[in-house]
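Example: Cytoplasmic dynein 1 intermediate chain 2.
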Amino acid sequence: MELQFKQSKAVAVTSLSFLAGDVNNFVVGSEEGSVYTACRHGSKAGISDIFEGHYGPATGIDTHSAAGPIDFSYLFLTSSFDWTIKLWSHKNPRPLYSFEDNADYVYDVQWSPIHPALFAAVDGTGRLDLWNLNNDTEVPTTSTSAESMTSLNRLRWTHSGHQIAAGDDEGHLFIYDVGEQLAVPRADEWSRFQNTIQEIQANASSNIGEIGSPKMSPSKLPFS
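Written out as structure tokens, the predicted fold is:
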């Protein structure tokens, strides 16, 4: 399938993620930094909407997939060469929030498959970060660095949500165990995350061009 936005040139796709449980609708990141929603089949197959906010190629993209009492499937994350991670909603063409704690290219990002507020990201310094947005939105909850001190450029959670596999630019693969206190969501995590998202959305609406959220006390929970 050739992806093209309206009458402009073809989109150079750099990352892709299907919506949870959906084989038709997906989001893609592009070389120029824009993000697009698209579908494989139907009367409007191809790209439908554009989301702009990055200033470099979108290296990673992931839609929210943790199943629970509240549906967050409208949320997705992107990482970029512009050193940021951005949180988006399918309902808003601008990012809801920009995470700016990295000092190098952010190569990949992925939501936890079991915890609604938890995601992981890797960057060019070899750092693997875990963010629990119910605890803090300004700094990672915990971080670790690759033993090889090389750039980490890809990550994947296991289906259990207790391990992360990360690869570096020299072909090494690292497996990290995530501590149970961090990996396993408490019963109230979904309602807390709903409140977190509502705060972020309210701030995004009132701070055009300076997307932020009130800082909460971070919880430092190490990798096991």
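The radius of gyration is 17 Å.
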